[in-house]
Amino acid sequence: QVQLVESGGGLVQPGGSLRLSCVASGFTFSRYAMSWYRQAPGKERELVARITSPGGNTNYADSVKGRFTISRDNAKNTVYLQMNSLKPEDTAVYYCYVSFGSWGQGTQVTVSS
After folding, report:
1. 2, 75, 108, 109: which has the fewest Cβ within 10 Å?
2. Long-range contacts of 44-51, Cβ-Cβ distance < 8 Å, separation of 24 or more
């Protein structure tokens, strides 16, 4: 069955960095676009970044452009989200998503001093 397992979340100070990972199984990873979404308390889930395959074309939410980078390693069935210059408003649960409609369980990111 399809599994998406996120890791790498945690507590970080404003201006800090984190790298999220999502390991996929149960499907041919290299054939599908992958995305990261996030959901803050009381808010709707929103798209953060997306990467296609093949080609590796990327797009980002305006709020994270220039700070976050999505990448993938098809040999490892893994998609990453490098998050730099983190802000308190980046605090949310971050979810991995595959384009045919499956979600990971999420990983909490908290940006606070």
Report:
1. 75
2. 45/95, 48/81, 48/94, 49/81, 51/79
Question: pLDDT for 92-102, tens place per residue?
Answer: 999 999 999 99
Alpha carbons within 13 A on the beta-carbon side of 35: 18
- Name the token pair of 38: 């996030």
CA distance 35 to 1: 19
Q: How many CB atoms lie within 10 A of CB 25?
A: 11
Residues 67-101: pLDDT tens digits?
999 999 999 999 999 999 999 999 999 999 999 99
